[in-house]
Amino acid sequence: MLSKASKYAIAAVLYLTNNATKEQKIGSKIIAEKLELPAPFLAKTMQELTKKGLIKSVKGPHGGFYLSKKDKENTVYEIIDCVDDITKFDQCYLGQSECSEENPCVVHYLYVPFKNELLNKFKNKTILEMATEFAKNNKLNEIIK
Length: 145
Prior knowledge:
Distance between the termini: 13 Å
Radius of gyration: 17 Å
Strand order of the largest sheet: 1-2
Shape: elongated
InterPro entries: TR_Rrf2-type_CS (IPR030489), Tscrpt_reg_Rrf2 (IPR000944), WH-like_DNA-bd_sf (IPR036388), WH_DNA-bd_sf (IPR036390)
Number of helices: 6
CATH topology of the domain at 4-85 and 126-143: Arc Repressor Mutant, subunit A
Strand content: under 5%
Organism: Polaribacter vadi
Helix content: 40-55%
Protein name: Rrf2 family transcriptional regulator
GO cellular component, one term: cytosol
CATH class of the domain at 4-85 and 126-143: Mainly Alpha
Number of strands: 2
GO molecular function, one term: DNA-binding transcription factor activity
CATH superfamily of the domain at 4-85 and 126-143: Winged helix-like DNA-binding domain superfamily/Winged helix DNA-binding domain
């Protein structure tokens, strides 16, 4: 359901949340190595997250990425919205062009409650909350698999 871009962005932001500080920034190459992600693609994704104000970036020899306390209060939904077309969640699960309450596909009523619950969790789960959960079970790489 999530694109690779979203998965990579979420994994990178969670990694930063648990490992970087304003004093100890982390570059995208190191994040890519640690998470086994394609470095050029991740670098572009990190730039998008910085442009939208979801993470902080400092250029130069001691530069890199980190999250401020305020950044950590952003939601997972905001990460997804930054790198993906969030309207894809409104599309029919089976890919039909006409699918709605008035004209449902065969799985519409199975999919819509699941989709709404998932989107609500993305909208209500802060980056810090999710990063804390992943720090406990240490399964960050499972996001991107």
